[in-house]
From TrEMBL:
Substrate binds at residues 47, 74. It comes from Streptomyces indicus. The lineage of its organism: Bacteria, Bacillati, Actinomycetota, Actinomycetes, Kitasatosporales. Belongs to the aspartokinase family. Residues 268-344, 350-423 form the ACT domain. It is an enzyme of class 2 (transferase). Its EC number is 2.7.2.4. One of its GO terms (cellular component) is cytosol. This is Aspartokinase. Pathway: Amino-acid biosynthesis; L-threonine biosynthesis; L-threonine from L-aspartate: step 1/5; Amino-acid biosynthesis; L-lysine biosynthesis via DAP pathway; (S)-tetrahydrodipicolinate from L-aspartate: step 1/4; Amino-acid biosynthesis; L-methionine biosynthesis via de novo pathway; L-homoserine from L-aspartate: step 1/3.
Length: 423
């Protein structure tokens, strides 16, 4: 008997109707002879609403308590889904992350999975049940406290369980038909990709594509778990993410896989840093100690007359307060002049393994942006990606311009977005 792990995102279980629709789909898989583990996210925008609520009672909520609060969202959907399945005459049991054996480190709000011990899930499946698991959460090995895996973490839960249970496939059900060449909310002419490599998908995810989380793809690549991203609304075949295409999975030998954008980052500029050895180390050590992941970094050439330079970097907006607080603390020792915080930025990235061997991609990317009148503030590259930072206001136009310039526009159907606010 084959085992499938399915994951349903918040927009798929946004209301009672959605939960009943998902229950039917799960039961269908069970009827087709599979053992089914279904991982669920919180209903609709529940997680955002809980965060808003927490911030109303405390500007920087304590990590442990925030995790306790947020995991409630997934518990609501898992219990309701199990009820809906039972109502269809099938046996289902719901499990929290901790009950499902998702063991993490103790970093609250973005814990890493370090082990999965799905004994209770196996027993439940053996008894003939459908197992429903609350995504995005686990329990710390050391402190035994409840943790969460970071926003969008249910995908990672699903892949981790698929690996631990040796599942045949991990199906990620979402509100679009798969992975597109750009966000279909922004680019109506975005094309669905039939198959994409782990490598390109990792870069798209790192660049802001929200359809799959970076950590989830990383995990899937490490354990070689094929992911099938598809819509819970349409039932159409979606996008396969794996090492190698299988069977009739179409591979477009395009140079570029897609254009991703990200408006979740902010830019911090440390103004007037003395231009001498050790200052950058000092600044980024302080940021690292606050457990903040930074993205792009730019240091300006110092003005000869002053011997001072500016250092800018980008980071998730959600960590802006923590970063500026950490930098304020070292202001006197570093001796910089001031801090600037700018959250009106966007990052636009072009991704594709083909750019390694095709000169001119960078030039064409910059030309497309310039033709659209978009100014570039920061640039960074990897072997298979080019990213720029622009004003947030320019992002949609910039993404469309680049998508068109690289011939990615479809000439047929418009990309469909079935649900979700994209919040
Ligand atoms: N509910 C969590 C979030 O919104 C986890 C998830 O959706 O995967 O981030
Ligand atoms: Mg969600």
């Amino acid at each position: 008997m084959s085992l499938v792990v399915q994951k349903y995102g918040g927009s798929s279980v946004a209301d009672a109707e959605g939960i009943k629709r998902v229950a039917k789909r799960i039961v269908e898989a069970k009827r087709n002879g599979h053992q089914v583990v279904a991982v669920v996210s919180a209903m609709g925008d529940t997680t955002d609403e809980l965060i808003d609520l927490a911030e109303q009672v405390s500007p920087i909520p304590a990590g442990r308590e925030l995790d306790m609060l947020l995991t409630a969202g997934e518990r609501i959907s898992m219990a309701l889904l199990a009820m809906a399945i039972k109502n269809l005459g099938h046996e289902a049991q719901s499990f929290t992350g901790s009950q499902a054996g998702v063991i993490t480190d103790s970093v609250h709000n973005k814990a890493r999975i370090i082990d999965v011990t799905p004994g209770r899930l196996r027993a439940s499946l053996e008894e003939g049940n459908i197992a429903i698991v609350a995504g995005f959460q686990g329990v710390s090995q050391d402190s035994k406290d409840i943790t969460t895996l970071g926003r969008g973490g249910s995908d990672t839960t699903a892949v981790a369980l698929a690996a631990a249970l040796d599942a045949d496939v991990c199906e990620i059900y979402t509100d679009v038909d798969g992975v597109f060449t750009a966000d279909p909310r922004v680019v109506k002419k975005a094309k669905k990709i039939d198959w994409i490599s782990f490598e390109d998908m990792l870069e798209l995810a790192a660049s802001g594509s929200k359809v799959l989380l970076h950590r989830c793809v990383e995990y899937a690549r490490r354990y070689n778990i094929p992911i099938h991203v598809r819509s819970s609304f349409s039932g159409l075949p979606g996008t396969w993410v794996s090492n190698e295409p299988q069977g009739d999975q179409q591979v477009e030998h395009a140079i570029i896989s897609g254009v991703a954008h990200d408006v979740s980052e902010a830019k911090v500029t440390v103004v007037g840093v003395p231009d001498k050895p050790g200052e950058a180390a000092h600044i980024f050590r302080a940021v690292a100690e606050a457990e903040i992941n930074i993205d792009m970094i730019v240091q300006n050439v110092s003005a000869a007359s002053t011997g001072l330079t500016d250092i800018s970097f980008t980071l998730p907006k959600a960590e802006g307060k923590k970063a500026t607080a950490a930098l304020e603390k070292i202001k006197a020792t570093v001796g910089y002049e001031s801090l600037r915080y700018d959250d009106q930025i966007a990052k636009i990235s072009l991704v594709g393994a083909g750019m390694k061997t095709n000169p001119g991609v960078t030039a064409q990317f910059f030309e497309a942006l310039s033709d659209a009148g978009v100014n570039i503030e920061l640039i960074s590259t990897s072997e298979i990606r080019i990213s720029v930072v622009t004003r947030a206001d320019d992002v949609n136009e910039a993404v469309r311009a680049v998508h068109t310039s690289f011939g990615l526009d479809s000439d047929s159907d418009e990309a469909v977005v079935y649900g979700g606010t994209g919040r």
